[in-house]
């Protein structure tokens, strides 16, 4: 199976998940992406990693009812402005991490599954910004396999097993 076929399979399976399963997958993706935001915060002294982590925890426990508007408003202040960080791939990755959390908040509010498709697309875009063309296909295949495994775990009512962020470590070492 090539990467395009796996991506199509994943997007097809998203429609089979119930609302709780969709939120679980979205939260797993957000957790996987959060270290890129942390790297940006630590190296460029912008943003608030702890607040984003707390926001995810509130979503996991369902403690965001009545706080959605406030969370959305606060989220904006932790988004890097790409004009302030021109040509900075880490700023773009951090913006994508915040974008995933924004999509999760929207999905929590309106239960629209198209947010999850956007989340998957955002997740798949991050590694390619930082790798050469020759490495891109292996990274994409790896990330697709992770999402595919998560969907299988969710469909089997198992806990999602988060893999390490080995690709992030490799990119950090190269930076």
List the defining traits of the structure above.
single chain, 175 residues, mainly alpha, YP_001051499.1 fold like, 73% helix, 0% strand, globular, disordered C terminus
List the SSEs and their pairings.
Elements: H1 3-14, H2 19-44, H3 49-61, H4 68-77, H5 89-110, H6 114-125, H7 133-155, H8 166-174
Helix pairs in contact: 1-7, 2-3, 2-5, 2-6, 2-7, 3-5, 4-5, 5-6, 6-7
What does this entry show, briefly?
With 175 residues, the chain is mainly alpha-helical. It has one domain: Up-down Bundle (YP_001051499.1 fold like), CATH 1.20.1590. The protein is 73% helix and 0% strand.
Overall spatial form: globular
What is the CATH superfamily label? YP_001051499.1 domain like
Largest sheet: none
Which H/E pattern describes the elements? HHHHHHHH
**What is the count of structural domains?**
1
Please tell me the overall pLDDT: 78
- What is the level-2 CATH architecture name? Up-down Bundle
Oligomer: single chain
Span between N and C termini? 32 Å
Highest CATH level, the class: Mainly Alpha
Give the helix proportion (percent range). Answer: over 70%
Round the Cα radius of gyration to an integer and report it: 16 Å
How many DSSP helices? 8
Class by SSE composition: mainly alpha
Q: Show unreliable segments.
A: 128-133, 163-175
Q: What is the CATH topology assignment?
A: YP_001051499.1 fold like
